[in-house]
Amino acid sequence: MKLYYHPASTTCRPIMLFAAESGIEIEYQLVDLFTGEHMQPPYAEINPNKLVPLLEDGDFRLTESAAILKYLAEKTGSAAYPKELRARARVNEMMDWINTQLCRDLAYGLVYPQMLPNHKRPDTAVQQATVAWGQERARNWMKVLDQKLIGSGNAYLCGDMISIADYQGAAFVALAESIRSDLSAYPNVKRWLGGMKALKSWKKVNEAIDGFAASMKDVPFQAV
Question: What is the DSSP letter of 222?
Fold first, then answer.
C-alpha cells in the first residue's frame, strides 16, 4: 500500500500514527503542499480533490482520512475499529462529530486562518471576525468534548479502549497547542490528549507540525 501524504497535514497524521502504532506497512509518497505539488499533474490527475491523503492499495484508491482509517483498520482486523454493531456505531459517530463539528470550527475557523497564509482572509476586519467566530464555536465544541463526550470516566473518546476515533481526534485537538492553548480549561481533554501523546510513535509522526508551530513562536495567536 502507498500513502500520498504530507507530514504536516492534520488529515495525514492520524493515518501515519495509526499505521505506526499498529505495525502496518505503508510506502509513503511525499506530496509537497508548500510548493503546490498537490495542485499539479500527476497528483491532481489521480486525486481530483487536489488534497492529501490518498491511499493506493493495488488498483484501489481511497481519499478522505476517516475512510482510510476505517479501511486500514478493517483490512488488518484492528480492535481499534470494533466489529460489534453498537461499539462500531459509536466510533463512527465520534469520527463524524470530529469532522463536522470540531474540525470545522477549531481547525478551519480558528487555527488555519491564523497559521496558514492561504487561509488568512485578505481583509483585516473579515479576518478578525472569522477568528472571533471560530474561537467562540471551537470553545463550545471543546467544552462538549471535555464535559460530555470524554468526561471524567473515559480514558478514550469511546470508552476504555483506544479506537481510530482517538487517532483522528488527537491530531485536530493538538492543533490547539499549535496556537498556544494550554487546554487548562478542558482538563478531561488535556488528560486524554496526554495519553495519546504518550504513544511511542507520537513524537516522530508530529515532528513536522511541531517544528512548524515552533517557527511561529513570536506570532500572536487567539487561543481556544
Answer: -
pLDDT, tens digit, for every residue of 118-127?
999 999 999 9
Q: How are beta strands 2-5 and 27-30 bridged, if at all?
A: parallel
What crossing angle do the helices spanning 164-178 and 124-144 adopt, rounded to 10°? 140
Residues 151, 171: contact at Cβ < 8 Å?
A: no
pTM, 2 dp: 0.97
DSSP label at residue 94: H
**DSSP three-state, residue 64:** coil
- Cell of residue 41, nine digits: 499533474
Q: How far is CA 89 from CA 14, 25, 58, 64, 95, in A?
A: 20, 27, 29, 19, 10
For residues 187 and 146, the answer to whether their CB atoms sit within 8 Å is yes
Residue at grid coordinates 492520524: 14
Domains of the chain in sequence order:
2-76 (3.40.30.10), 85-214 (1.20.1050.10)
In degrees, rounded to 5, the angle at the alpha carbon of residue 205 between the alpha carbons of residues 200 and 210 is 110
Give the pLDDT confidence score for residue 39 in this predicted structure.
Answer: 95
Q: Phi/psi at 4 (nearest 5 deg)?
A: -85, 125
How confident is the model over 75-107, as pLDDT tens digits? 999 999 999 999 999 999 999 999 999 999 999
d(CA 182, CA 167): 20
Distance CA 94, CA 127 (A): 30
Report in angstroms the alpha-carbon separations of 191 from 44, 69, 139, 157, 195. Answer: 40, 23, 17, 11, 6
